Amino acid sequence: MDQPLRICHLYPDILNLYGDRGNVLCLKRRMEWRNMPVEVSKVGVGEPLKADDYDLFFVGGGQDFDQEVLLPDLFSGKDKELKAAIEDGKPVLAICGGYQMLGAYYKTWDGKQIDFIGALDFYTKGVKTRMIGNYVFTFDDRPGVNVIGFENHSGKTYLGAGVRPMGTVLKGYGNNGEDKTEGVRYKNVFGTYSHGCLLPKNPAVADALLSAALERKTGHGELSPLPDRFENRAHDEMEKRLLG
Question: Is residue 220 among the annotated active site residues?
Answer without folding.
Answer: no
